[in-house]
C-alpha cells in the first residue's frame, strides 16, 4: 500500500482483528456498562423512590412512569447535540465529556426528596447518557474490520445491558435492606399500600445514585487511554494524523508498520451539507425511515416494559424483591441476545435478521401474556428470559444499521438523531403504558390493573417494525464503509432538499410529546378521559404515517433510478 492509493477501511480490514481492536472494545465496553447502570438504576429503584416521593399514594401511575421519562428526555437532547459535537470536535472528546457529565449529575439525585429536584438532575444526567451511546456505536463501526463490524457493534451494546443487570443486582439488596445503610441520610419512610394498610422502609435507594457517580473517575482513564479514530481525522482534513494512527494500529498488532503517505489516502466526498436536515434529503430519507422506525419501536417496548415489569409482578402478588429480580432476569437474557445477534446479522444479513426479530417478539409477548401467573417464580423467570431475549435481540439488530446508513461526515449525527428520536418512544412508553393501565378496559373487576392485557398492546408496534423493515431496510452486511458510501453516490439523489421533510418531522415529534408525555402528566385524570387513548394512538402513529409517505415515495424513485 506504500505506492498506491488506499482508504482507511482497506487498511483496517487488512490488519483485521488486532490488539488495537480489543483495547477499543474494552474501553467502550466499560463506558457502556456505566451508561447502562445510570439508565436502569431508575427502573430498579422506582418503587422505592415512589414510596419516598408519594408516601400517601399507593398508585402514582403516570407520575411514577415519569421517573424514567425525565432521563430519556435528557437522552433525547444529549443524543441530538452530542452527535453533532462528535462529528465536529471528535469521537474521543465527546465520549469523555459524556461519561463524566452523566457521572457528575447522577450524584445529586441521591439527595432528592421530591419529583421536581429528581427530574431536573435526571434530565441533565440523561444529556450525558444520550451523548455516550451513539458515540460508542460510531467508534465501533469506524474501528472494526468490515466482516466483523456487526458482531462488535452488537456485542459492545451487550455491555450496556450488563449495566442494566448490575443495576438490578446492586439495587435489590440495597433497597430491600432492613436497616438504614447511611444513617439519617437513608431515612425511614412510612407509605400506604394498595390494600389501604401501611408499611415502612428505609430510603437506601439513595446509595444506588451515589454509586452512579463512579464514571467521573472512568472519564479520567479515557483521557489517557483512548485515541481518536482515523476515519474522523481523515474526514476532518487531517490526513497526516489519520495515517499516523493507522501506522500506530499496525505497529501495535504486527510490531512493524508502513509509513502511509497522506497524499495517497482516498477520503470519500463529504455531503454538501452536514446538519441533521441532510438526514431527510432524498439521498438519505429511505435509510432514515428504516432505522428511525425500527429503533423507535424497540425503544418504546424495551423502556416501557422495563419501567413496569416490577409493578406487573407486584400486582400478581410477588414481593418487591422478587419483582425486581424478575426484571433483572429479563435483562440477563438481553445480554445473551446482544451477543448472539451480531453473529447472526453478519451471517444472514441485517434485513432478514431484523425482520425475523419482530416476529419473534410477537410470539414472545403473547406467551408472556398467557402464561405469566402468581406463585410460580420458575415459570415467570423462564418467560422473562424469553421476552428479554426476544425484545433486546430486535432492538440490537438495528444497531449495526445506524452507522452503516451514513457517510463519516454525518455518521454520528445520523446515529445520534436516530437514537434521540427513538427515545421519544421510550420517554412516552412508560407514561403511555401507565396511562393505559389506569383505563377501565385494562382493569379487573376489583380495580387492579390487568398487566397481562396491557402488554398485548405491544403487538401493534412490533407489527409496524416488521412492515418498515421489509419496506425500507437496505442490506449492508459485509460491505466496507467506503462501498456503502459509493452505492449512495451512484443513485445521484440530492442532499440539499431535506429542509421541508425535517420541519415536518419536528412538528410530528412535538405533537407526540404533547399527546403522549405532556398531557398524561398535566391533565387531571387523563387516563380516565374517553379521548385519551385515541389521542395517544395518533401521537404514536403519526411518525409511521410520515415514514410510509416520504420513505415510500423516495423508495419508488430509487428503484426507478436503478433500472
From TrEMBL:
Any one cellular-component term (Gene Ontology): plasma membrane
Alphabetized UniProt keyword annotations: Membrane, Transmembrane, Transmembrane helix
Gene3D superfamilies: MFS general substrate transporter like domains
Broad class of where this protein is predominantly found: membrane
InterPro entries in alphabetical order: MFS, MFS_dom, MFS_trans_sf, Sugar_transporter_CS
Keyword Membrane on entry: yes
Residue ranges constituting the Major facilitator superfamily (MFS) profile domain according to the UniProt record: 24-477
Keyword Membrane: yes
Transmembrane intervals: 21-42, 62-82, 94-111, 117-140, 152-171, 203-225, 284-305, 325-344, 356-373, 379-399, 420-442, 454-473, 502-523, 535-556
GO terms for MF: carboxylic acid transmembrane transporter activity
Compartmental location: Cell membrane
Mode of membrane association: Multi-pass membrane protein
SUPFAM superfamilies tied to this protein: MFS general substrate transporter (SSF103473)
PANTHER family reported for this sequence: CARBOXYLIC ACID TRANSPORTER PROTEIN HOMOLOG
Name by which UniProt lists this protein: MFS transporter
Amino acid at each position: 500500500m506504500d505506492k498506491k492509493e488506499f482508504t482507511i477501511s482497506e487498511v483496517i480490514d487488512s490488519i483485521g482483528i488486532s490488539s488495537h481492536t480489543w483495547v477499543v472494545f474494552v474501553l467502550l465496553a466499560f463506558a457502556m456498562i456505566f451508561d447502562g447502570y445510570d439508565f436502569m438504576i431508575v427502573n430498579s429503584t422506582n418503587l422505592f423512590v415512589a414510596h419516598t416521593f408519594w408516601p400517601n399514594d399507593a398508585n402514582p401511575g403516570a407520575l411514577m412512569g415519569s421517573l424514567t421519562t425525565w432521563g430519556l428526555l435528557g437522552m433525547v437532547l444529549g443524543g441530538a447535540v452530542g452527535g453533532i459535537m462528535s462529528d465536529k470536535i471528535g469521537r474521543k472528546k465527546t465520549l469523555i465529556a459524556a461519561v463524566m457529565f452523566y457521572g457528575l449529575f447522577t450524584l445529586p439525585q441521591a439527595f432528592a426528596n421530591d419529583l421536581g429536584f429528581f427530574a431536573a438532575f435526571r434530565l441533565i444526567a440523561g444529556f450525558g447518557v444520550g451523548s455516550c451511546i451513539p458515540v460508542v456505536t460510531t467508534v465501533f463501526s469506524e474501528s472494526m474490520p468490515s466482516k466483523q463490524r456487526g458482531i462488535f457493534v452488537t456485542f459492545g451494546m451487550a455491555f450496556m445491558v450488563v449495566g442494566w443487570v448490575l443495576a438490578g443486582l446492586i439495587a435489590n439488596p440495597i433497597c430491600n435492606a432492613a436497616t438504614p445503610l447511611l444513617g439519617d441520610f437513608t431515612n425511614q419512610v412510612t407509605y400506604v399500600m394498595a390494600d389501604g394498610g401501611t408499611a415502612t422502609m428505609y430510603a437506601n435507594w439513595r446509595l444506588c445514585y451515589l454509586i452512579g457517580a463512579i464514571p467521573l473517575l472512568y472519564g479520567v482513564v479515557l483521557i489517557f487511554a483512548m485515541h481518536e479514530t482515523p476515519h474522523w481525522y481523515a474526514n476532518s482534513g487531517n490526513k497526516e494524523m489519520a495515517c499516523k494512527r493507522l501506522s500506530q494500529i499496525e505497529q501495535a498488532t504486527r510490531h512493524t508498520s508502513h509509513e502511509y503517505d497522506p497524499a495517497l489516502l482516498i477520503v470519500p466526498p463529504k455531503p454538501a451539507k452536514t446538519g441533521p436536515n441532510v438526514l431527510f434529503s432524498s439521498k438519505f430519507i429511505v435509510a432514515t425511515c428504516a432505522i428511525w422506525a425500527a429503533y423507535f419501536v424497540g425503544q418504546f417496548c424495551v423502556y416501557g416494559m422495563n419501567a413496569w415489569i416490577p409493578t406487573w409482578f407486584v400486582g400478581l402478588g410477588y414481593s418487591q424483591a422478587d419483582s425486581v429480580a424478575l426484571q433483572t432476569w429479563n435483562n440477563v437474557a438481553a445480554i445473551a441476545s446482544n451477543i448472539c445477534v451480531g453473529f447472526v446479522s453478519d451471517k444472514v444479513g441485517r434485513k432478514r435478521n431484523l425482520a425475523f426479530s419482530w416476529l419473534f417478539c410477537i410470539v414472545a409477548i403473547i406467551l408472556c401474556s398467557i402464561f405469566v401467573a402468581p406463585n410460580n417464580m420458575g415459570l415467570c423467570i423462564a418467560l422473562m428470559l424469553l421476552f428479554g431475549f426476544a425484545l433486546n435481540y430486535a432492538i440490537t439488530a438495528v444497531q449495526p444499521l445506524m452507522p452503516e446508513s451514513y457517510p463519516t461526515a454525518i455518521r454520528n449525527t445520523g446515529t445520534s438523531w436516530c437514537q434521540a428520536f427513538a427515545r421519544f418512544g421510550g420517554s412516552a412508553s412508560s407514561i403511555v403504558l401507565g396511562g393505559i393501565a389506569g383505563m377501565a378496559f385494562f382493569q379487573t373487576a376489583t380495580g387492579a390493573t390487568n398487566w397481562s392485557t396491557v402488554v398485548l398492546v405491544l403487538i401493534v408496534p412490533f407489527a409496524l417494525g416488521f412492515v418498515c423493515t421489509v419496506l425500507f431496510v437496505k442490506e449492508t452486511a459485509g460491505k466496507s464503509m467506503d462501498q456503502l458510501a459509493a452505492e449512495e453516490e451512484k443513485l445521484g439523489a440530492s442532499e440539499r432538499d431535506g429542509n421541508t421533510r425535517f420541519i415536518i418531522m419536528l412538528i410530528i415529534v412535538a405533537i407526540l410529546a404533547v399527546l403522549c408525555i405532556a398531557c398524561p402528566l398535566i391533565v387531571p385524570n387523563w387516563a380516565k378521559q374517553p379521548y385519551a387513548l385515541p389521542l395517544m394512538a395518533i401521537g404514536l402513529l403519526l411518525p409511521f404515517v410520515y415514514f410510509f409517505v416520504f420513505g415510500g415515495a423516495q423508495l419508488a424513485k430509487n428503484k426507478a433510478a436503478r433500472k
